[in-house]
Amino acid sequence: MTDEKPEGPESSEDKNPEEPIVPAESEGAEADASAPEGAGDGDDLFVEDILAAAEAEENDPSAEHLADLKRVTAEYANYRRRTESEREVVRERAVGDAVRVLLPVLDDLDRAQKHGDLDGDGAFPTIAAKLRGAVEKLGVKPFGEVGEVFDPQRHEAIFQQPTPGATETTVLDVVETGYTIGSTLVRVARVVVATPAD
C-alpha cells in the first residue's frame, strides 16, 4: 500500500494548520469592524443627501431661469394669437371700408338684374359678373333672400306687411342686399317683412 492521499477536497486540517478556524458569525463582525465609520448610518446619510439636493435645487438659478423662460414663452404665444386675431379684424375693416364705396354700384346692379337688364350676352352683364366676382374674392358675402327669417341684427325692416298664413316674420322682398366680410357686418339688408296676420 502506498501513503498517498486520495485526490479530492482537502480536509480542514490540511488547509493551513497555523490559521485559526473562525466561525461564520465572527467573520461578519470583522467585516463590520473593517467598514468605514458612519457607513452604518445609511438612512441618515440618504436623508441628508436628499435635503442637500433640495436645498441646492432651491438655490439653483437654472430652475428660476426655466420658470422665467416658460412664462415668457406663454406670454409670447398669447401675444401672437392676439395680434393675429386683431390683424384679421383690421383687414376685415379695411376691406369693408373699400366695399362701402362700391355698395351703390352693387345696388344698381341688383336693380338692373331685377328689371332684366343683365339677361343675355353683352358688355353690361359681363362687367357686372366681373365686378361681383372681384367683390367675392375680397371675402364679401351677400345676404338677404326672400323667405329668410327676419333677424333684427342683420335685417332692417322698412315696411311690414301682414300676410295671411304667415306663422313667423320672414323677408317678403329685398330692397337692398346686406353684406358681410367674415364676422364683420358691412351693411344690413333693407327688407320688406311679412308678418303674421292678426
How would you describe what is shown here?
- By secondary structure, this protein is an alpha+beta fold.
- Helix content is 52%, strand content 18%.
- The protein has a domain at 76-196: Roll (Nucleotide Exchange Factor Grpe, Chain A, domain 2).
- The strands form two sheets. A three-stranded antiparallel sheet has the order 1-4-5.
Estimate the global geometry from the Cα principal axes: elongated
Strand order of the largest sheet: 1-4-5
Number of beta strands: 6
Oligomer: single chain
Helical fraction equals 40-55%
* β-strand amount: 15-25%
Query: With helices defined by DSSP (H or I, 4 residues minimum), what is the helix count?
Result: 5
Annotated CATH homologous superfamily of the domain at 76-196: Head domain of nucleotide exchange factor GrpE
Instruction: Output the structural class.
Output: alpha+beta
Radius of gyration: 47 Å
How far apart, in Å, are the first and last alpha carbons?
A: 142 Å
CATH class of the domain at 76-196, named Mainly Beta
SSE topology string: HHHHHEEEEEE
CATH architecture of the domain at 76-196: Roll
Sketch the major β-sheet. Answer: 3 strands, antiparallel
Overall mean pLDDT: 79
Report low-confidence residues grouped into runs of 5 or more.
Answer: 25-42
**CATH T-level topology of the domain at 76-196:** Nucleotide Exchange Factor Grpe, Chain A, domain 2
Region (Disordered): 1-45
Family: Belongs to the GrpE family.
Keywords: Chaperone, Cytoplasm, Stress response
Subcellular location: Cytoplasm
